[in-house]
Amino acid sequence: MGVLLLAQASRRTSLLHASLRPLLAQSSSYSSTPNIEYKPIKKILVANRGEIAIRVFRACYELKIGSVAIYSEQDKMHMHRQKADEAYLIGKGLSPVQAYLNIPEIVRIAQENHVDAIHPGYGFLSERSDFAQACIDGGIRFIGPTPKVMAMMGDKIAARQSAISADVQVVPGTDKPVETTEEAVAFCEKHGLPVIFKAAYGGGG
């Protein structure tokens, strides 16, 4: 099986869900940024909505961690708002998607309400390295990989090259995005079928 990386495709996001329990006792940092004091997590903001937010809030309740929800104007009656200890409106006047992608406002809400860590859930900002960096720069722990790792693995071309450099065996694939039908056909003729087409900057592995 071969893998073709496509140049033009919409960004999709995948599950980025970190276990909360190991973080409570964790002494080492996800990032070398020096302006964060690593201490037990007492309050978590979930930068998401719906089922994933509710699941994280349930874990917070079981671990006796405070939980904070954000919600758009259109989501004010949604269950995730009711399941958190605290809930704050975000993105007033914006569409739901734009509201949950508002990085400066999410960080501001977290800072103003003494949030220790932010969980991105999946979708929305979960694969955005700039969001992870904004959390760290704001003195808030990001529950997930470091911005450097997110940037590297979010680009499938860079991720593939990193694996090859580390002597990890990979299936035949392209070293750059496929731009034309002719390139795709040539690859298939050389390596045979089946072939998977993946967006170079898409989510989902």
Automatic annotation (TrEMBL):
Instruction: Please give the start and end residues of each transmembrane region.
Output: none
Q: Which UniProt keywords apply?
A: ATP-binding, Biotin, Ligase, Nucleotide-binding
Q: Which Gene3D superfamilies match?
A: ATP-grasp fold, B domain (3.30.470.20)
Domain named Biotin carboxylation: which ranges? Answer: 40-205
A GO molecular function held by the record? ligase activity
Q: Does the keyword Membrane apply?
A: no
Does Manganese appear among the keywords? no
Name of one Pfam family that matches? CPSase_L_D2
Q: Know the name of this protein?
A: Putative biotin carboxylase
Q: Which organism is it from?
A: Ixodes scapularis (Black-legged tick)
Q: What is the lineage of its organism?
A: Eukaryota, Metazoa, Ecdysozoa, Arthropoda, Chelicerata
